[in-house]
């Protein structure tokens, strides 16, 4: 089985069993935008009331502001701060992991197992899964932003810049003065982060199965949100807003290198595990 | 039938894995947040400061370290892990057909429901009790004094009066409440069994509900179980919301599991 055929098989197989899970990002995108808009409107009205302005029309949250809020991460925790993981960040990432979770296990049974035998090369087999991950991340985030883009497009504030009054109303800090490549920092890095997490999850799935690997990822994400304080600022899973975007103390190239490295290491370890995982496959092949 | 189901719960590897994960979290919180406080006890007495109490240092009494957040966030997975997928597995592997030749559907469905509910409750209650017992062995059970600023429950919080007057009763009631929530979360898996495909999806159904509520809590904080299940109540619990959510889950379980199970052709 050639690589392209393997990739094609993965797409069909994946679509057959996992397509319903891709309704979740649509729902999440629409619901989170609605909730963020309500939060912002409430805060704007409250601050206008303090200033003695009544009956004002609150500004609508734009696409970029919604995205910035979802992936803004957590401020550095101070002593005796209540620790709560940001809902937007963790739910968007966990839903993405959930959309793909279980596919590796599925690929090792039934039709997947037959395809694996026919493929004859674990590198090709892993390549198929990697391409699938890449397409899935694009489709997932495409579906997530779809309702928001549609709504903000109809409202006419499609890509307005980050307005201070909206950022204040959502209690998120401003971007650092003179931030280079803000679109890259705000849009590309969170997606790359999700992309690297899925490889890590699939590696764990090869060892422990779908449930335990998903549970481990959920635990790791909550822990990473906490451990970034005060142990190290370089735990990038959280993409902490203060260190990355507000203070700019972490160079983005370092993050890209680390995430790419994590993908590479996961792939190598997966390949090593695949080589030894199912000895009876060889006999079935013969 | 009940005995068989309970035997399946407690002789199940997943049950002990769930208990183990809960115990690790409970021990982690104890080591990070309770043990270091022992050194301050004598100092507090010398300085005339109100010493640390078990009620604001155990896992249910604080929300400042990662452990309570972790425990309450993954609570639905822990609750469903031991036996939540057993109904799905019974149907998939054909075990249910063997059972139904020996007993009627009602008995089987009731026994399954009770076993799943109890497994979810036990898995949640055990780590909380372990942490509370260890903390009580280490720190004094001084009654909460709001004026010290070390205790985080205020007038607006649910059962605040009980917390101040009878903290032990409050704590035990809250552990029981968490157990009930664990049981209900596990039952969500049962309710979804006849509608979804895949063991993983069945196990993750309660967690999906949890994530949905966690997002909704952006604007209505009392909705999220992560907040209201902790005795520290990071977002004040509202009795109406608790009862409402419990009733909705019970209704869904009754309709989607029990009634559907009585008629479903998968089980014949």
Say how many strands of chain B there are: 0
Largest sheet of chain A: none
As a whole number of angstroms, the C-alpha radius of gyration of chain A is 21 Å
The overall pLDDT average of chain B reads 88
How do the SSEs of chain B run, as a string of H and E?
Answer: HHHHHHHHHHHHH
What is the count of β-strands of chain A?
A: 0
Low-confidence segments of chain A, given as residue ranges, are 282-286
Mean pLDDT of chain A: 82
- What percent of the residues of chain B sit in helical stretches (DSSP H or I)? over 70%
Oligomer: heterodimer
Question: Layout of SSEs?
Answer:
The complex is a heterodimer of chains A (286) and B (268).
Chain A: H1 3-18, H2 23-50, H3 63-70, H4 87-100, H5 103-106, H6 110-119, H7 122-155, H8 164-169, H9 182-208, H10 210-227, H11 241-246, H12 252-277, H13 280-285
Helix pairs in contact in A: 1-6, 1-7, 2-4, 2-7, 4-9, 4-10, 7-9, 9-10, 9-12
Chain B: H1 2-10, H2 13-34, H3 38-47, H4 54-57, H5 66-80, H6 86-93, H7 95-100, H8 105-138, H9 160-165, H10 167-193, H11 199-216, H12 225-228, H13 239-263
Helix pairs in contact in B: 1-8, 2-5, 2-8, 5-8, 5-10, 5-11, 8-10, 8-13, 10-11, 10-13
Summarize it.
Helix content of chain A is 71%, strand content 0%. Chain A is mainly α.
What key phrases describe this protein's structure?
heterodimer; A: 286 residues; mainly alpha; 13 helices; 0% strand; elongated; B: mainly alpha
Task: Walk me through what this model shows.
By secondary structure, chain A is mostly helical. Chain A has helices spanning 3-18, 23-50, 63-70, 87-100, 103-106, 110-119, 122-155, 164-169, 182-208, 210-227, 241-246, 252-277, 280-285. Chain B has helices spanning 2-10, 13-34, 38-47, 54-57, 66-80, 86-93, 95-100, 105-138, 160-165, 167-193, 199-216, 225-228, 239-263. In chain B, helix 1 packs across helix 8 (105-138). Chain B is mostly helical. In chain B, 47% of the residues are buried. The longest helix of chain B is centred in the middle third of the chain and has 34 residues, at 105-138. Chain B contains 13 helices and no strands. Chain A binds chain B through residues 17, 21, 24, 28, 31-32, 35-36, 38-39, 42, 80-85, 87-88, 90-91, 94-95, 98, 101-102, 105, 210-212, 214-215, 218-219, 222-223, 225-227, and chain B through 17, 21, 63-66, 69-70, 73-74, 77, 81, 197-201, 203-204, 207-208, 211, 214-219, 226, 234.
């Amino acid at each position: 089985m050639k690589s392209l055929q393997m990739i094609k098989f993965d797409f069909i197989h994946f679509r057959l069993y996992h397509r319903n899970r891709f309704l979740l990002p649509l729902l999440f995108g629409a619901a989170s935008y609605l909730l963020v808009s309500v939060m912002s409107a409430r805060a704007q009205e409250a601050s206008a009331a303090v200033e003695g302005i009544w009956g004002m029309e609150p500004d609508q949250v734009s696409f970029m502001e919604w995205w910035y809020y979802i992936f803004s991460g957590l401020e550095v925790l101070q002593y005796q701060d209540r620790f709560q993981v940001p809902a937007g960040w963790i739910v968007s990432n966990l839903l993405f992991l959930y959309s793909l979770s279980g596919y590796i296990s599925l690929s090792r049974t039934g039709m997947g197992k037959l395809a694996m035998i026919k493929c004859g090369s674990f590198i090709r087999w892993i390549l198929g899964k990697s391409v699938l991950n890449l397409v899935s991340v694009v489709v997932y985030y495409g579906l997530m932003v779809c309702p928001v883009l549609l709504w903000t497009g109809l409202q006419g504030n499609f890509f307005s810049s980050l307005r201070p009054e909206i950022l204040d109303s959502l209690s998120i800090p401003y971007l650092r003065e003179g931030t280079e490549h803000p679109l890259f920092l705000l849009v590309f890095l969170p997606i790359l982060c999700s992309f690297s997490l899925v490889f890590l999850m699939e590696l764990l799935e090869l060892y422990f199965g779908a449930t335990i690997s998903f549970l481990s990822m959920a635990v790791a994400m909550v822990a990473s949100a906490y451990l970034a304080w005060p142990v190290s600022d370089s735990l990038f899973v959280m993409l902490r807003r203060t260190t990355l975007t507000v203070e700019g103390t972490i160079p983005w190239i370092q993050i890209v290198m680390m995430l790419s490295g994590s993908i590479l290491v996961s792939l190598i370890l997966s390949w090593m595990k695949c080589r030894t995982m199912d000895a009876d496959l060889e006999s079935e092949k013969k | 039938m009940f005995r068989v189901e309970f035997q399946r719960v407690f002789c199940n590897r997943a049950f002990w894995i769930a208990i183990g994960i809960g115990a690790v979290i409970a021990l982690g919180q104890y080591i990070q947040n309770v043990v270091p406080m022992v050194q301050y006890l004598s100092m507090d007495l010398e300085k005339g400061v109100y010493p640390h109490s078990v009620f604001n240092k155990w896992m249910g009494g604080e929300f400042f370290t990662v452990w309570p957040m972790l425990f309450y966030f993954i609570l639905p997975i822990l609750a469903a892990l031991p036996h939540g997928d057993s109904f799905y597995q019974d149907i998939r592997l054909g075990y249910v057909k063997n059972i139904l030749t020996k007993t009627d559907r009602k008995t089987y469905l009731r026994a399954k429901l009770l076993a799943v509910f109890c497994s979810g409750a036990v898995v949640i209650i055990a780590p909380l009790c372990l942490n509370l017992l260890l903390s009580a062995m280490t720190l004094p059970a001084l009654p909460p004094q709001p004026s010290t600023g070390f205790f985080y429950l205020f007038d607006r919080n649910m059962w605040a009066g009980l917390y101040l007057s009878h903290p032990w009763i409050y704590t035990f009631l809250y552990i029981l409440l968490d157990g009930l929530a664990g049981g209900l979360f596990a039952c969500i898996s049962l309710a979804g069994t006849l509608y979804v495909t895949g063991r993983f999806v069945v196990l993750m159904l309660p967690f999906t509900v949890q994530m949905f509520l966690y997002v909704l809590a952006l604007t209505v904080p009392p909705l999220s179980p992560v907040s209201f299940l902790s005795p520290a109540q990071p977002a004040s619990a509202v009795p109406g919301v608790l009862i409402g959510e419990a009733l909705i889950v019970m209704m869904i379980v009754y309709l989607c599991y029990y009634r559907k199970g009585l008629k479903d052709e998968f089980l014949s």
